[in-house]
């Protein structure tokens, strides 16, 4: 209503009239609003704003993130390191494979962001008060949707059913569901990078993260992974916003109107903005300058007891398990123990314990 009054008053001024006159030449309801209702225009505005924010902010940020990780995975493809499952030593893999897995997570997030955008493409405009379209032209919704689609370059369309479109915000719940999943992914990616960069002497330290602070307030030289932890906190906030959206969508839609639209629109746009800016900062201040610690990656491989896994086809699981336990007690590597006990001929042992061969299936 405020917008209608501003437009009407400005039109009166342009027309040469007095906007303070009691009898207005141009009326905010009769001439500007012309049958529109906040019940259809407000959710339409939310859908357009969310769709545009995802298209212009989140998708470019995710695309840049995935490309940056993919580049790192290609650069580090020949670096061997130890894998970990349940936080315990596992069989070797290449650092490039590990980072490539993270890149794929972000690529899938791009797909989810597109689905989140598409969930709000149907526009309620034209439904007016309760979805019936009272006091408006039957082509109004379609025409407005077409203009919005042309102006934004996003495929917005008139709602298939205006009674659903006016009353419920299921599309917005669906859209934020995609954002919540993206937030889960970003938390996981940031946390894994944080763990891989832990140390520098008593942690994993397989990744060298760029320093973005002078150090701890009490421990000189202790630089924390602040970019990872910042992204994790953003993700936690977005996940929390998802709970607000879910509750509002379920409880707010009574009969012909969802009265929780203001908070739903606010938190969804907040989530898009938080995710987008966090990703951009993460790429700028961490990913681009992140380095592999090849020496540390390589040194851990030979020490892993899981190297014995590749001997299963040669000596069987039970004997391999016995070797692993013996190596743990003695402090010897699997290779050293196998040589001492002459488990396999030298050339066969070298092939079986070649860590590069362990990173791919073998015929």
Biggest pleated sheet: 2 strands, antiparallel
Q: And the CATH topology of the largest domain?
A: Fumarase C, Chain A, domain 2
Number of beta-strand segments: 8
Rg from alpha-carbon coordinates? 30 Å
What number of structural domains do the residues give?
A: 3
Overall 3D geometry? Answer: elongated
Strand order of the largest sheet: 1-2
Helix percent band: 55-70%
Quote the distance from N terminus to C terminus. Answer: 72 Å
CATH H-level homologous superfamily name of the largest domain: Fumarase/aspartase (Central domain)
Q: What is the count of helical runs?
A: 14
CATH top level label of the largest domain = Mainly Alpha
Q: Can you tell me the residue ranges where pLDDT is under 50 for at least 5 consecutive residues?
A: none
Spell the H/E element sequence: HHHEEHEHEHHEHEEHEHHHHH
What would you say the CATH architecture of the largest domain is?
Answer: Up-down Bundle
Please tell me the overall pLDDT: 96
Question: Structural class given helices, strands, pairing?
Answer: mainly alpha
Strand content: 5-15%
Index terms:
363 residues, 14 helices, two-stranded antiparallel sheet, Fumarase C, Chain A, domain 2, 3 domains, mainly alpha, Ribonucleotide Reductase Protein R1, domain 1
Describe it.
The protein has helices at 2-14, 28-33, 38-75, 95-118, 140-152, 162-167, 170-196, 226-251, 261-285, 294-303, 312-315, 317-330, 334-341, 346-352, and strands at residues 80-85, 88-94, 122-123, 157-158, 207-208, 253-254, 257-258, 291-292. The N and C termini lie far apart (72 Å). Helix 3 runs parallel beside helix 9 and helix 4 (95-118) runs antiparallel to helix 7. It contains 14 helices and eight strands. The longest helix has 38 residues, at 38-75. A two-stranded antiparallel sheet has the order 1-2. It is mainly alpha-helical. The protein has three domains: 2-33, no CATH class; 38-296, Fumarase C, Chain A, domain 2, CATH 1.20.200.10; 304-357, Ribonucleotide Reductase Protein R1, domain 1. Helix content is 61%, strand content 7%.
């Amino acid at each position: 209503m405020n917008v209608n009054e501003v437009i009407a008053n400005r039109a009166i001024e342009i027309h040469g009239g007095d906007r303070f006159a009691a009898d207005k030449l141009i009326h905010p309801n009769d001439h500007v609003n012309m049958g529109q209702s906040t019940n259809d225009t407000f959710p339409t505005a939310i859908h357009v704003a969310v769709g545009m924010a995802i298209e212009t902010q989140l998708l470019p940020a995710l695309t840049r993130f995935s490309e940056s990780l993919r580049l790192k995975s290609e650069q580090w493809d020949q670096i061997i390191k130890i894998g970990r499952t349940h936080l315990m030593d596992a069989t070797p893999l290449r650092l490039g494979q590990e980072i490539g897995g993270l890149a794929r997570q972000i690529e899938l997030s791009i797909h989810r962001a597109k689905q989140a955008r598409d969930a709000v493409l149907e526009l309620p405009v034209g439904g007016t008060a309760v979805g019936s379209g009272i006091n408006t032209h039957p082509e109004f919704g379609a025409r407005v949707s077409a203009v919005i689609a042309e102006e934004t370059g996003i495929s917005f369309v008139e709602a298939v059913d205006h009674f659903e479109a006016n009353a419920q915000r299921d599309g917005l719940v669906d859209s934020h569901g995609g954002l919540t999943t993206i937030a889960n992914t970003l938390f996981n990616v940031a946390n894994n990078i944080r763990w891989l960069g832990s140390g520098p002497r008593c942690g994993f330290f397989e990744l060298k993260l760029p320093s973005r602070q002078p150090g701890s307030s009490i421990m000189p030289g202790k630089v924390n992974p602040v970019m990872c932890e910042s992204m994790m906190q953003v993700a936690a906030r977005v996940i929390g916003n998802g709970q607000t959206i879910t509750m509002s969508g379920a409880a707010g839609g009574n009969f012909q109107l969802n009265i929780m639209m203001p908070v739903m629109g606010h938190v969804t746009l907040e989530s898009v903005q938080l995710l987008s800016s966090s990703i951009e900062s993460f790429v700028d201040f961490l990913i681009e300058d992140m380095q592999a610690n090849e020496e540390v990656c390589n040194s851990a491989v030979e020490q892993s007891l899981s190297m014995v896994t590749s001997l299963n086809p040669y000596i069987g699981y039970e004997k391999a398990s016995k070797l692993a336990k013996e190596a743990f007690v003695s402090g010897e590597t699997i290779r050293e123990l196998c040589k001492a006990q002459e488990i396999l001929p030298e050339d066969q042992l070298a092939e079986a314990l070649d860590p590069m061969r362990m990173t791919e299936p073998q015929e």
